[in-house]
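# step 3/5: fold
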Amino acid sequence: MCTNFSPTRNGTWVKNSLGVDWPDIHYPPEAYPGYDAPIAMLGDDHQTPLVRTARFGLVPHWAKDNTIGRRTYNARFETVAEKPSYRSPWRKRQYAIALLDDFFEPNWETGVGVRWRIKRLDGEPMGVASIWDRWLDPQTGEIVHSFSMLTVNAD
């Protein structure tokens, strides 16, 4: 699925759709693996929903560095419970909703990958099911939240 998307900035839609207040957060207009983007998730009390930024590309808590996030931005629903990178967040029910306006996929009809924008017909933002994890950067001590979008086989 998605390797690039436009994170939403529509806090009103998030509030009306999810009942979650929009914080003062900053992130780039397009997200690629390693970029920050907004997600909705439950807070540390596992009850209070919140919106925060997280790095696109899940960095498992056990990772030695954050480069694994370049390969873990999508998690196949069919195997998410077994794959080492995703198994722990899945079992801990660390679910999130990635908040985006659109995403991009290559169209190969011409034999060359042409960037296609995929968005809702009504132009409203959308939420994509995701999982998240928390990683402690051993060099800086920074706590990094990251996420992976869940995908399904479209056959």
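# step 4/5: annotate
The beta strands are 5-7, 36-42, 49-56, 74-76, 95-107, 114-119, 126-136, 143-151.
# step 5/5: archive (pending)
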